[in-house]
């Protein structure tokens, strides 16, 4: 794991955008995430695109997850969120932006189709991830199998409460979702996990320095051969080994820069 500690959320976004820009230039397939954490990174990517520095024309994107029971036209469907917050403001072909089809009549088939679409694209080159306060990634709640593929999941009540801020009432938050599995995420070539704020400190400490455990789905990053974790000081505040992570970052060999 490459663990990068940055002063604040804005510096996290700059570092994440630097990493993602390298993939955009290579016309890569990029896995994108919803939630609040990646928004600053998306704004930075859009800024670079609008400044003429970065094109996504040759890229494909796959979202991690989608709510079941929300129409695509609902502003909080992840289909709507990804288009509004990111792809509509870039030059990526909309036909190359994929979100699990949670409006399908046959959800199991929709999950299989999503896995097939990822495979047909040659796999995901880099997968952007946030982390839930309970250690989830995507909507893989505690107890998710490390081998799981895209499937229907039931949200944890804590996640429903967390996400209620996006809806008029907690009762409006869908309880069911389609999400890439941990096995899907694990197959991506590079994992880029972002976390900002004190509320993520315990989850980050458990994921990076606790045991590998299905109870902490984000501990999957410990199994991955190429995982970059970018955190701000607050999210890093529960890490015991942070002196070493900073030392590695400050003494990066030239070939790695
Ligand atoms: P957040 O959500 O970025 O809104 O904190 C992350 C997540 O739950 O995966």
UniProtKB/TrEMBL annotation:
<dbReference type="GO" id="GO:0019262">
    <property type="term" value="P:N-acetylneuraminate catabolic process"/>
</dbReference>
<dbReference type="GO" id="GO:0004342">
    <property type="term" value="F:glucosamine-6-phosphate deaminase activity"/>
</dbReference>
<dbReference type="InterPro" id="IPR004547">
    <property type="entry name" value="Glucosamine6P_isomerase"/>
</dbReference>
<feature type="active site" description="Proton acceptor; for enolization step">
    <location>
        <position position="65"/>
    </location>
</feature>
<dbReference type="InterPro" id="IPR006148">
    <property type="entry name" value="Glc/Gal-6P_isomerase"/>
</dbReference>
<dbReference type="InterPro" id="IPR018321">
    <property type="entry name" value="Glucosamine6P_isomerase_CS"/>
</dbReference>
<feature type="active site" description="For ring-opening step">
    <location>
        <position position="134"/>
    </location>
</feature>
<feature type="active site" description="Proton acceptor; for ring-opening step">
    <location>
        <position position="136"/>
    </location>
</feature>
<dbReference type="GO" id="GO:0006043">
    <property type="term" value="P:glucosamine catabolic process"/>
</dbReference>
<feature type="active site" description="For ring-opening step">
    <location>
        <position position="141"/>
    </location>
</feature>
<dbReference type="GO" id="GO:0005737">
    <property type="term" value="C:cytoplasm"/>
</dbReference>
<dbReference type="GO" id="GO:0042802">
    <property type="term" value="F:identical protein binding"/>
</dbReference>
<keyword id="KW-0378">Hydrolase</keyword>
<protein>
    <recommendedName>
        <fullName>Glucosamine-6-phosphate deaminase</fullName>
        <ecNumber>3.5.99.6</ecNumber>
    </recommendedName>
</protein>
<dbReference type="Pfam" id="PF01182">
    <property type="entry name" value="Glucosamine_iso"/>
</dbReference>
<feature type="site" description="Part of the allosteric site">
    <location>
        <position position="151"/>
    </location>
</feature>
<dbReference type="InterPro" id="IPR037171">
    <property type="entry name" value="NagB/RpiA_transferase-like"/>
</dbReference>
<keyword id="KW-0119">Carbohydrate metabolism</keyword>
<dbReference type="GO" id="GO:0006046">
    <property type="term" value="P:N-acetylglucosamine catabolic process"/>
</dbReference>
<feature type="site" description="Part of the allosteric site">
    <location>
        <position position="153"/>
    </location>
</feature>
<keyword id="KW-0021">Allosteric enzyme</keyword>
<feature type="site" description="Part of the allosteric site">
    <location>
        <position position="154"/>
    </location>
</feature>
<feature type="site" description="Part of the allosteric site">
    <location>
        <position position="144"/>
    </location>
</feature>
<feature type="domain" description="Glucosamine/galactosamine-6-phosphate isomerase">
    <location>
        <begin position="9"/>
        <end position="228"/>
    </location>
</feature>
<dbReference type="GO" id="GO:0005975">
    <property type="term" value="P:carbohydrate metabolic process"/>
</dbReference>
<comment type="function">
    <text>Catalyzes the reversible isomerization-deamination of glucosamine 6-phosphate (GlcN6P) to form fructose 6-phosphate (Fru6P) and ammonium ion.</text>
</comment>
<comment type="pathway">
    <text>Amino-sugar metabolism; N-acetylneuraminate degradation; D-fructose 6-phosphate from N-acetylneuraminate: step 5/5.</text>
</comment>
<comment type="similarity">
    <text>Belongs to the glucosamine/galactosamine-6-phosphate isomerase family. NagB subfamily.</text>
</comment>
